[in-house]
Amino acid sequence: MISPTKQSLGRVKKVHLIAICGMGMGSLAGLLKEKGFEVTGSDDNIYPPMSTQLESLGIPLYQGYRPENLSSNLDLVIVGNAVSRTNPEVTALLEGGRLAQKKIPTLSMPQALFEFFLKEKTPLVVAGTHGKTTTASLLAWILNHAGRDAGFLIGGILKNFKKSYHLGGGPYFVVEGDEYDTAFFDKGPKFVHYAPQMVLLGPVEFDHADIYKDLNDVMGAFEKLIPVIPPNGFLVACADSPQTLKLASLFSGRKTTYGFSLQAEWRAEQITFTAEEANFQVVYRGKRLGSVRSPLAGRHNIQNLLGVIALTTNIGFCLEEINRALARFESVKRRQEVRGTVHDVIVVDDFAHHPTAIAETITAIRSRYPGHFLWALFEPRSNTSRRNIFQGEFVQSLAGADEVVIADLYQPEKIPAGERLDPQKLAGDITQGGTRARFIPAVPEIVSTVVREVVPPAVLLVMSNGGFGGIHSKLLETLKERFQ
Q1: What is the four-CA torsion angle of 213, 214, 215, 220, rounded to 10 degrees?
Q2: CA dihedral sign of residues 182, 212, 408, 444
Q3: With the C-alpha atoms ordered 74, 79, 82, 87, is the resulting torsion angle positive or negative?
């Protein structure tokens, strides 16, 4: 790939994004458009909500990858990490023909984000296996509510902004720092490109089994993040994660810890949950600073918020400012998002797909809806959840529901047969442990079965990192037919 020079970057006007409909790439496209660039993009899968967002911005989209999608007057091509070396548009840039002769410069998504949006800002990077989207969203909202006009690029749609990005005119820029690889030509983790001035590092566990072979391999990726933080930077580390503490020990600059652990400098005490909010006392180094009221359910979200409090107080915020922002925080789409209620049957959508996230989400929903029968509907869809690595762990994490439905693996043919999760065995093992569970492969059968059997009051907690065949709207439509 041809790297742009400083001079060529300064002349960029027309930009094309290959694989534009991913959350990160689509958000980057929005930032580029708002900054005044002419933007086009292509993708194999163009569908809402990202396609709607891009079309509303006037960004032309090309369905499928073809050399003719690339005009010869392009100044820059940005390549998403879902794109392989054999992609037809990449091939056209590299091998012969007019495009290769023109030598159009290319960048990865993280490189482009840094060059055009982070270089002149103070980047605040949120990293870790769990809670990045919610934590980064809380941080971005608190900064913006206080008038800091922080830019952000986050892997979820903030309801307060109705989008996943914001250009921002202030000094700070919040980035969700992903440990996934950068591009086919750069197998390092994305977050090393962001030059963070401050890092909020949440719990670290094994994930992304398609590119990391074990926890040590994951730790190797995070170990590359620590040296990127400058000596005068700031690290906020989750004390509840042994892996995170190990990483924090590698940083010699200013740092602090947060969590429920007694060794954490920032802790939450006197925690109470109601159907509407969580309340807790913030304690710093044994000194009680005051109470916080959060609209988010679950201990894991108190943990996320503690990290944000530790970082924002370092910037100069007080708990009163944080509470004012939290009172107006509308959360993030697909994070415990209520999609609708029919006859006291509540359909909740959540992105959970890792065993830890599933267990925490089930616990949080129980605290938010006491007295409701809890159905957990799980689609093994991510590259990790479709593998049998967590076969046993899923049994424990899903057992916290009252009833469990396991769908078939999404595109199972893409996982080697010997490595696939066995959803039928998973359902049997959960049932053997005392929680009724069934393997129902297809969405129509799941919908008809659940709607026929559900007894109000109940919560239908749908968990998948993808669309799950549009099951949320199908459940609501069929519930209306039954009860109305």
Answers
A1: -40
A2: negative
A3: positive
Joined together, the tokens standing for residue 193 give 């490109």
Exposed/middle/buried for 286, CB within 10 Å: 0-12, 13-18, 19+?
exposed
Non-local CB neighbours of 90 within 8 Å, separated by 6+ positions: 18, 79, 83, 84, 184
Q: Mean pLDDT per segment of 10 residues, for the chain of length 484 residues?
A: 74 94 92 96 82 89 93 91 92 73 86 95 95 93 96 90 93 94 92 96 88 91 96 97 97 97 96 88 96 89 96 95 93 82 94 88 90 96 90 94 96 91 96 96 97 96 90 96 89
Q: Which residues pair with 370 in a beta bridge?
A: none
- pLDDT mean across residues, the chain: 92
Backbone angles phi, psi at 201, to 5 degrees: -105, 110
- pLDDT at residue 1 in the model: 62
Token readout for 341 is: 């209620």
**Rounded Cα distance, 176 and 333, in Å:** 15
**DSSP-assigned beta bridge partners for residue 72:** none
- What is the C-alpha to C-alpha distance for residues 25 and 43, in angstroms, rounded to an integer? 11
Reported as a single tens digit per residue, the pLDDT across 63-121 is 999 999 998 789 999 999 989 999 999 998 887 556 666 778 899 999 999 999 999 99
Residues 87, 18: contact at Cβ < 8 Å? yes
Q: What is the C-alpha separation between 329 and 158, in angstroms, rounded?
A: 9
**Lookup: tokens for 33:** 């458009």
Integer Cα distance of 363 and 410 in angstroms:
25
DSSP 149: -
Reported pTM: 0.88
* Nearest Cα to Cα of residue 33 among 4, 1, 56: 56
Helix (H) / strand (E) element for 267: namely strand 266-273
Write the DSSP assignment of 350-378 as a string of letters.
E---SHHHHHHHHHHHHHHSTT-EEEEEE
Q: Token match 């995070």: residue?
A: 222
How far apart CA 421 and CA 389 sit, in angstroms, is: 8
In the numeric block, which tokens belong to residue 269? Answer: 């005490």
Burial class of residue 402, CB neighbours in 10 A (0-12, 13-18, 19+): middle
Q: Which has the closest alpha carbon to 296: 269, 272, 278?
A: 278
Q: What distance in Å separates the CA atoms of residue 148 and residue 170, rounded to the nearest whole number?
A: 6
Cβ–Cβ < 8 Å for 197, 124: yes
Are 75 and 116 in contact by the 8 Å Cβ rule? The answer is no
The candidate with the shortest Cα–Cα distance to 326, out of 160, 98, 452, is 160
Residue 483, token pair as written in the block? 């009860």
* Continuous H helices in 169-214: none
Strands 151-158 and 163-166: antiparallel
